[in-house]
Amino acid sequence: xxxxxILKNKNENNVTIGGNLHQQLPSNKKIKWMAxxxxxxxxxxxxxxxxxxxxxxxxxxxxxxxxxxDLLDGCRYVYIDLGTNIGIQIRKLYEPHLYPNTHVLPLxxxxxxxxxxxxxxxxxxxxxxxxxxxxxxxxxCLKHNWRVKIFTSTAVSIIEKxxxxxxxxxxxxxxxWGASLEANIKKPSIIVPSIDIVSWFKKTVLNRxxxxxxxxxxxxxKIDIEGHDPIVLANLILNGIYCSIDLIYGEHFDKKFQNAxxxxxxxxxxxxxxxxxxxxxxxxxxxxxxxxxx
Length: 294
Description:
Layout: H1 2-66, E1 77-82, H2 88-94, H3 105-112, E2 119-124, H4 131-143, E3 148-151, E4 155-157, E5 162-166, E6 189-196, H5 197-206, E7 218-223, H6 229-238, E8 247-250, H7 255-266, E9 274-277
Parallel strand pairs: 1-2, 1-7, 2-3, 4-6, 7-8, 8-9
Antiparallel strand pairs: 5-6
């Protein structure tokens, strides 16, 4: 009887212990599954963060690289946009499908043929109103691997100093397209730094390093600096830079100036620069969204 009692108690204890084990097993499995899910989420998050960090590091290094004095090294094709406003002309070069039938597209085709994605573009804009938008546009271009650098809040001149710049508050619908270095007592003024475009052109454009094997290179320039254009063009001529540019187009030079250029070119066998009067303000207030395809 005693033995039976002991065995009975032992069996009951085993059942209790076994029952506790069976009750604990689901809890242990749950912990293991939770741990597995946690590590999976952690791994995915780490992967995403790492990829983003690598991407931004790459973008920043690219931005830094082309912001240096040698920003046009390696560029066979160059487009210079003096008075870029909100960068519409530059964007027409890379995304012509957004701007059908605009006057400048045949000129891009004539100079750069089918190599628009290889063109390195540099823009200059004095009006600080456009600074944030232009920086966003520049980053958009870099993400598309288009080499674009825009000097914001920088006036184009033949000297390097702080200059008075006259703005057009109230004309935001047209992106203040009449803002200018020309004195106008009816317009409020601000102070902006200027760039000596002659010196910059010599150092950055003409002295750029082009990879060997290219038979020729092409340079195209737009000039739209609201009346300051003839001064800049005259100094490009007198400093031996003008004839290195294949095509220049703009609107702020008259027939008299164009005729003077034509007379000079009659006595030159080497200067083939085309100076074209063109007022291409199409789509000037269109701000198409910056879309990056994944």
